[in-house]
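Changelog note: in this version the structure field was regenerated for every chain. One regenerated record is shown below for reference.
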Amino acid sequence: MQKEMYVTQILDDLKYARELAEQGANTPLLGGRIGLMWGCLLVPTLLFHGLTLMEVVSVPKQYIGIVWLIFGISGGLLTFLLGRKLDDKAGANSAINKVEQATWTATALMLFGLAIGVAYSVIVFGKPYWLYDIILAVAFGTYVVNYYVLTKLSGLKRLYIPMLIGFALMVFMIINLGQPYIYVVAAIGVLFTAVIPALISLKHEPKNA
Protein backbone atom coordinates (compact mmCIF):
# COMPACT_ATOMS: atom_id res chain seq x y z
CA MET A 1 0.00 0.00 0.00
CA GLN A 2 2.78 2.40 0.94
CA LYS A 3 4.66 1.55 -2.24
CA GLU A 4 1.59 2.31 -4.37
CA MET A 5 1.16 5.66 -2.63
CA TYR A 6 4.82 6.44 -3.27
CA VAL A 7 4.48 5.62 -6.98
CA THR A 8 1.31 7.68 -7.22
CA GLN A 9 3.05 10.65 -5.63
CA ILE A 10 5.94 10.39 -8.09
CA LEU A 11 3.52 10.27 -11.03
CA ASP A 12 1.64 13.28 -9.69
CA ASP A 13 4.91 15.18 -9.29
CA LEU A 14 5.94 14.32 -12.84
CA LYS A 15 2.55 15.41 -14.16
CA TYR A 16 2.79 18.68 -12.28
CA ALA A 17 6.33 19.29 -13.57
CA ARG A 18 5.17 18.58 -17.13
CA GLU A 19 2.28 21.01 -16.79
CA LEU A 20 4.62 23.72 -15.53
CA ALA A 21 7.02 23.06 -18.39
CA GLU A 22 4.21 23.21 -20.94
CA GLN A 23 2.91 26.40 -19.39
CA GLY A 24 6.36 27.94 -19.61
CA ALA A 25 6.89 26.82 -23.17
CA ASN A 26 3.53 28.17 -24.33
CA THR A 27 3.60 31.46 -22.46
CA PRO A 28 5.53 34.43 -23.89
CA LEU A 29 7.93 36.23 -21.57
CA LEU A 30 6.64 39.68 -20.64
CA GLY A 31 9.73 41.35 -19.22
CA GLY A 32 10.90 42.69 -22.55
CA ARG A 33 9.87 46.31 -22.08
CA ILE A 34 11.47 46.46 -18.64
CA GLY A 35 14.66 44.83 -19.88
CA LEU A 36 14.78 47.21 -22.82
CA MET A 37 14.34 50.19 -20.52
CA TRP A 38 17.21 49.10 -18.26
CA GLY A 39 19.39 48.37 -21.26
CA CYS A 40 18.73 51.79 -22.79
CA LEU A 41 19.63 53.43 -19.48
CA LEU A 42 22.69 51.27 -18.96
CA VAL A 43 24.37 51.84 -22.32
CA PRO A 44 24.81 55.65 -22.05
CA THR A 45 25.60 55.41 -18.33
CA LEU A 46 28.39 52.88 -18.93
CA LEU A 47 29.71 54.89 -21.88
CA PHE A 48 29.79 58.06 -19.77
CA HIS A 49 31.58 56.21 -16.97
CA GLY A 50 34.20 54.69 -19.26
CA LEU A 51 34.83 57.73 -21.45
CA THR A 52 35.13 59.95 -18.36
CA LEU A 53 37.72 57.64 -16.80
CA MET A 54 39.58 57.52 -20.11
CA GLU A 55 39.44 61.35 -20.20
CA VAL A 56 37.78 61.29 -23.61
CA VAL A 57 34.95 63.30 -22.05
CA SER A 58 36.11 66.40 -20.20
CA VAL A 59 33.90 66.01 -17.15
CA PRO A 60 35.01 65.84 -13.49
CA LYS A 61 35.04 62.25 -12.28
CA GLN A 62 32.82 63.22 -9.37
CA TYR A 63 29.90 63.35 -11.79
CA ILE A 64 30.13 59.60 -12.40
CA GLY A 65 28.43 58.86 -9.10
CA ILE A 66 25.70 61.40 -9.81
CA VAL A 67 24.98 59.81 -13.19
CA TRP A 68 24.72 56.36 -11.60
CA LEU A 69 22.38 57.75 -8.96
CA ILE A 70 20.15 59.19 -11.68
CA PHE A 71 20.32 55.84 -13.46
CA GLY A 72 19.16 53.94 -10.37
CA ILE A 73 16.32 56.30 -9.47
CA SER A 74 15.07 56.53 -13.06
CA GLY A 75 15.26 52.78 -13.58
CA GLY A 76 13.44 52.02 -10.35
CA LEU A 77 10.62 54.46 -11.11
CA LEU A 78 10.21 53.29 -14.70
CA THR A 79 10.24 49.64 -13.60
CA PHE A 80 7.32 50.37 -11.28
CA LEU A 81 5.36 52.18 -13.99
CA LEU A 82 6.05 49.62 -16.72
CA GLY A 83 5.38 46.72 -14.37
CA ARG A 84 1.87 47.99 -13.67
CA LYS A 85 1.09 47.93 -17.39
CA LEU A 86 1.94 44.22 -17.53
CA ASP A 87 -0.80 43.18 -15.09
CA ASP A 88 -3.43 42.93 -17.82
CA LYS A 89 -1.22 41.09 -20.28
CA ALA A 90 -2.17 37.52 -21.16
CA GLY A 91 0.10 35.19 -19.19
CA ALA A 92 1.13 37.80 -16.64
CA ASN A 93 0.34 35.39 -13.79
CA SER A 94 1.89 32.33 -15.41
CA ALA A 95 4.65 30.46 -13.62
CA ILE A 96 7.31 31.42 -16.16
CA ASN A 97 6.58 35.13 -15.91
CA LYS A 98 6.52 35.00 -12.13
CA VAL A 99 9.92 33.29 -12.23
CA GLU A 100 11.23 35.87 -14.69
CA GLN A 101 10.12 38.72 -12.45
CA ALA A 102 11.47 37.04 -9.31
CA THR A 103 14.91 36.22 -10.72
CA TRP A 104 15.55 39.65 -12.21
CA THR A 105 14.25 41.38 -9.07
CA ALA A 106 16.40 39.24 -6.79
CA THR A 107 19.57 39.78 -8.82
CA ALA A 108 18.86 43.51 -9.07
CA LEU A 109 18.62 43.69 -5.28
CA MET A 110 21.89 41.77 -5.01
CA LEU A 111 23.62 44.25 -7.35
CA PHE A 112 22.16 47.15 -5.39
CA GLY A 113 23.56 45.77 -2.15
CA LEU A 114 26.92 45.11 -3.79
CA ALA A 115 27.04 48.67 -5.13
CA ILE A 116 26.31 50.09 -1.67
CA GLY A 117 29.03 47.96 -0.09
CA VAL A 118 31.63 48.85 -2.72
CA ALA A 119 30.82 52.56 -2.65
CA TYR A 120 31.04 52.65 1.14
CA SER A 121 34.36 50.80 1.10
CA VAL A 122 35.86 53.15 -1.49
CA ILE A 123 34.52 56.43 -0.13
CA VAL A 124 34.79 55.80 3.62
CA PHE A 125 37.70 53.36 3.91
CA GLY A 126 39.66 54.46 0.87
CA LYS A 127 39.65 51.04 -0.79
CA PRO A 128 40.89 50.93 -4.42
CA TYR A 129 38.61 52.41 -7.05
CA TRP A 130 38.78 49.27 -9.19
CA LEU A 131 36.45 47.55 -6.72
CA TYR A 132 33.66 49.22 -8.69
CA ASP A 133 34.69 47.09 -11.67
CA ILE A 134 33.69 43.95 -9.81
CA ILE A 135 30.08 45.11 -10.04
CA LEU A 136 30.33 44.80 -13.83
CA ALA A 137 31.52 41.20 -13.59
CA VAL A 138 28.76 40.26 -11.15
CA ALA A 139 26.15 42.04 -13.28
CA PHE A 140 27.03 39.97 -16.34
CA GLY A 141 27.05 36.92 -14.09
CA THR A 142 23.40 37.60 -13.26
CA TYR A 143 22.61 37.37 -16.98
CA VAL A 144 24.14 33.90 -16.99
CA VAL A 145 21.98 32.74 -14.09
CA ASN A 146 18.74 34.37 -15.20
CA TYR A 147 18.91 33.38 -18.85
CA TYR A 148 19.85 29.81 -17.96
CA VAL A 149 16.87 29.46 -15.62
CA LEU A 150 14.48 31.04 -18.13
CA THR A 151 15.78 28.86 -20.95
CA LYS A 152 15.21 25.69 -18.94
CA LEU A 153 11.69 26.72 -17.93
CA SER A 154 10.54 28.26 -21.21
CA GLY A 155 12.38 26.12 -23.75
CA LEU A 156 13.53 29.29 -25.55
CA LYS A 157 16.97 28.16 -26.64
CA ARG A 158 17.69 31.58 -28.17
CA LEU A 159 18.30 32.78 -24.61
CA TYR A 160 21.45 30.68 -24.53
CA ILE A 161 23.08 33.28 -26.80
CA PRO A 162 22.92 36.26 -24.37
CA MET A 163 23.71 33.82 -21.57
CA LEU A 164 26.99 32.78 -23.22
CA ILE A 165 27.82 36.40 -24.10
CA GLY A 166 27.21 37.34 -20.47
CA PHE A 167 29.53 34.52 -19.35
CA ALA A 168 32.32 35.69 -21.67
CA LEU A 169 31.92 39.29 -20.53
CA MET A 170 31.94 38.26 -16.87
CA VAL A 171 35.31 36.55 -17.37
CA PHE A 172 36.61 39.49 -19.42
CA MET A 173 35.69 41.98 -16.69
CA ILE A 174 37.48 40.00 -14.00
CA ILE A 175 40.62 39.64 -16.11
CA ASN A 176 40.69 43.37 -16.90
CA LEU A 177 39.85 44.85 -13.52
CA GLY A 178 41.15 48.39 -13.20
CA GLN A 179 41.09 49.15 -16.92
CA PRO A 180 38.72 52.05 -17.74
CA TYR A 181 37.89 50.72 -21.20
CA ILE A 182 35.94 47.81 -19.71
CA TYR A 183 33.02 50.18 -19.19
CA VAL A 184 32.90 50.86 -22.92
CA VAL A 185 33.09 47.12 -23.61
CA ALA A 186 30.31 46.61 -21.05
CA ALA A 187 28.12 49.17 -22.82
CA ILE A 188 28.51 47.26 -26.08
CA GLY A 189 27.91 44.00 -24.24
CA VAL A 190 24.63 45.27 -22.81
CA LEU A 191 23.34 45.71 -26.36
CA PHE A 192 23.69 41.95 -26.87
CA THR A 193 22.74 40.75 -23.39
CA ALA A 194 19.86 43.11 -22.63
CA VAL A 195 18.68 45.35 -25.47
CA ILE A 196 18.46 42.84 -28.34
CA PRO A 197 16.94 40.00 -26.22
CA ALA A 198 14.40 42.50 -24.84
CA LEU A 199 13.42 43.62 -28.35
CA ILE A 200 12.89 40.00 -29.36
CA SER A 201 10.74 39.39 -26.27
CA LEU A 202 8.67 42.47 -27.09
CA LYS A 203 8.09 41.13 -30.58
CA HIS A 204 6.53 37.97 -29.12
CA GLU A 205 4.39 39.69 -26.49
CA PRO A 206 0.60 39.33 -26.80
CA LYS A 207 -1.00 42.50 -28.18
CA ASN A 208 -4.10 42.51 -26.02
CA ALA A 209 -2.90 45.27 -23.68
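Spot check on this record: The mean pLDDT is 87. The longest helix spans residues 95-125.
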